[in-house]
Amino acid sequence: MNKDKRVLYAVSFTIFAALLWLLFVPMKSSRITTAILLLPIAALTRLLIRKRTSPSVHKREVLLVVSLVGILFVVLLHMSGLYFGYYRNPYFVNTAVLLKYILPLTAIIGATELIRATILAQKSKLASFLCFLSCVLIETLAVSSIARITSINRFMDVVGLALLPAISANISYHYLSKNFGMLPNIAFRWITTMYAYLLPTLPSMSDALLSCIEILLPIFLMALILAMYEKKKKFARHKETALGRVTVVITTVIIVAMAMLISCQFRFGAIVIATESMTGELNKGDMIIYERYDDQPILEGQIIVFLDDKSKIVHRVVKIDRVGGETRYYTKGDANTTLDVGYRTEEDIFGLTDVKVAYVGYPTLWLREMLKPRP
Prior knowledge:
Layout: H1 3-23, H2 30-48, H3 59-79, H4 81-84, E1 86-88, H5 95-120, H6 125-141, H7 152-180, H8 183-198, E2 201-203, H9 207-229, H10 235-263, E3 268-272, E4 287-292, E5 303-308, E6 311-323, E7 326-332, E8 349-357, H11 362-370
Antiparallel strand pairs: 1-2, 3-4, 4-8, 5-6, 5-8, 6-7
């Protein structure tokens, strides 16, 4: 192994190890700490690794395309508020937001892309893979460190709102950086990140739905650039590439579908059964898929999802009474010996279900148990 390779691997491993360690360190602001750490790392990487490659002759065209896609994304996202409604942006730019969010994130984006472009130019698969992992860690750290995760809900937030979008995005960013340089990534990332601090109002879209869009957008961007600028390859290579694309598309569709279900923003949603009150029909660890309630007829024996003190309960309707102009639904868990307290009205009912997927919810329950605070 020559000296350049040793330096490349040493730098790649050091960056990954430093970021992995930082992920577990309690910090008041992982975003600011990550920015401070990355700036000298980016400078040293550029200084120690000297080999450079020339980006494609289409680099200016691609820079324009990705910038336009980023702007179009922001415009359409903001217009979605016509459906979801708007809320006043609490992080609209001011001095505090500038110092706490805009400047650190700008530094993180610039330093990350400088490191990525420098390492990818060496054309080493191992270094490229380590760089990919490091970039995913950086985007996760921009949201939170592992040390601050104290509940299953917080863990799922980090996975769904940071980790999955980071994986999807960095697949696209790696491709763009390798073929067209770091500027398209910097432009696209800055536009699609900073809108959250530069617009006075934002659409009232759920975080899960926004995460779903953020998973899909980079894949769309990469597919667009591939369609516009990829050169023709040999047939065998084309088959391999096609298979890879199909795999990526299927995986993306599955992730997006799950995010859509969990977001509950569409007609169908998903809930993991966390208790034994419905054992027999629905067991602890099963996941049910429900249809949002929209005045569908409800019969005795129907399993419904209803809200009780802001919690979603999945129980069976065992009795229906009509008092005056109000319909009252009495519910009970199949494994319970008594009826639920009180009754439900149409305003309490969230959805109807008769579809379950056995056992798939156990990982969520295990994580919830692991993250439960000890007495």
